[in-house]
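Q: Got a minute? One more chain.
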Amino acid sequence: MLAMTAVGILAYQIGGRALWLVPLSFVLFMVAGGASGIAGADLPYVEFGIALSVVILGAAIAFGIAAPLLVIMAVIGIFAIFHGHAHGAEMPASASALGYALGFVSSTALLHMAGIGMGMLIGRIGTRHEPALVRAAGGLMTLAGLGVLGGVL
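A: Always. Here it is, folded:
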């Protein structure tokens, strides 16, 4: 959930076309990863990739990393493959693949929108403090990701 929210906050932080391109790239790559998980393809280090996504996305927000949009979309896409693969590999045998995929895709999109909403809410608090608040949120996400990687959370 943190990674999906971070995608939305990062998209808000970048602004412009990133507001929809960043979440869209996550969803599209997640679908590809989900299909590979459903198909039974082996993807090493899935849990590590998921935890690392929280650390990297949180750090990108915290430090206000300014990279080309295409690079950000590619990095987010790589992380999304891990998230999607985990969903696909954990699909119950009795579930419809289409229905299951629609469920995790729509949930992800809603979490992206929640992240964008959080960024906007922070923006409404005051433009003077907005960058610091958004970066603090990214820092907290980074710490949470490190906690997951270290087995504390």
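A: The mean pLDDT is 92.
Q: Perfect, thanks.
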